[in-house]
Fold:
Amino acid sequence: MIVSGNQIHEVVQVLKEGKPVVFPTETVYGIGIALSQKKNSGVIFDLKGREENKPLSLHIARVTSLDLKKIFFPRIVNFLIHRFWPGPLTLVIKSRDGEKTGYRFPSNLIARQLIEELGEPVLATSANLSGKDPALTIEEAERYFGDKVPLYLDGGKTEFQAASTVLDLSQYPPNFIREGSEARKVRDAIQEFEAFLFMKKKILLVCTGNTCRSPMAEGWLRRYFLDEGLADSFEVISCGTTAFSGVPPSEEAIEVMREEGIDISVKRSRPLNDELLFQSDIIFVMTEAHKDYILERAPEVSGKIHILDIPDPIGMEKEAYRRVFEAMKSKLTKEMAWVLKS
Structure:
């Protein structure tokens, strides 16, 4: 049955009963179910003939629906939310337990009123059979599903007449899963954001040859910030006080990091220079000798330097590299407590 926007209370009741409804958004019509009735979401996959490995998106009516204690909220998420929500952009955000969820904040007033009156998000996807064009009118949606869907909420023809753009922000740089409505504007906004990446806090890691300790530390820190949703807030670089340019990491260092699921094989050594020292916000050195070397050439950076006290494993067996890495990981983890607050 098709109902109008002034009958939203009837649609809300159907959702509370755990049944699917079709509703308008500014992009295409959606078919959804109340989040609290997630156990019944299989009916949507059955209706669409859609594989269940293609998850539904959470449609919300206010940004405060995002649980900031459970999800990563890097700067680019905040930037895009303020730029495009409410609007035709679905953001895939990673939770702290590693789960990825798509969030959609539609600008369509009927959709938002429906979600508000329901009092919880709606798990939804486009109203169409799998492989067919999304419905742009309520009549198109009804032709797809007929009386298998109890209620259709009519909002007229959709504004954008194309699916939302879907952007995966669980990684950095972001990945376009689908380029839909206003995709070009989203790309331009990301470029604008990246133009200001000089605002990243720069961390410099210094050892001697830049082939074992500092590349391992760089690889681990990069992944740490990625896992914490902070890859767009910190830049990590490593170098060596007596390094040559272009030398790969030692095989032992590569193997130890590979065991951690981190690939540093493409890393190439770089010599320390004054530009790196002055542009860095924080400088971690492996030993007192590295600090002394830096202070001889640039005493102005003394306040940036922090000693990790990590011995050089060069020339030793892989087990020595593993011990060095574990010690370095432990010390860097403790250092991050103040780095993230500074």
Notes: The mean pLDDT is 93. The first strand starts at residue 2 and ends at 3.
